[in-house]
# Entry
Amino acid sequence: MLQRGEPAAAGEVRTFAELGLRHELSAALPFTAPLEIQRLAWPHLAGGADAILVSEAGSGKTLAYLLPLLHAMLERAGGGEQIGRAGGGEAPSPSRTGRLLLVVPTSVLCEQLLAQARALLQCSPLLVAAASCDHARGAH
Ligand SMILES: Nc1ncnc2c1ncn2[C@@H]1O[C@H](COP(=O)(O)OP(=O)(O)OP(=O)(O)O)[C@@H](O)[C@H]1O
# Structure
């Protein structure tokens, strides 16, 4: 479990580039500097470890898990090569990238996460989709 105030394993990095975030993702990101929870989470989640992220509301947890997990998928698909949408290339198969399943408790959060993931993936060939069971079950 990672708590606020713990020293970042990645050191006092100041930018996402210093964390090693792939260009396909950083190019789509409106920020250059990671927030504290994003610095703390990075080495664990990008390295494939399990982690529970704990910090106050609005502290940046969404990108803290989304960026390293998408980064890891692109690493599996492209290794050191940048892979992009240029030329209309096909999306890499899930057998190369792995699949990422995000489960959130409400359809509103689902919509917000979908929009954020789509924005982040505008320069990469990964595909994103969402499903909500609100209408089918009358519950989230
Ligand atoms: N590196 C960053 N630099 C500046 N702003 C950021 C950064 N990362 C995220 N934000 C912004 O911070 C705000 C809060 O982010 P986010 O919703 O991910 O927080 P959260 O911890 O998941 O909140 P909650 O606990 O309410 O779900 C958003 O407006 C987001 O765009």
Summary: Residues 31, 33-35, 38, 57-63 surround adenosine-5'-triphosphate (CB under 6 Å).
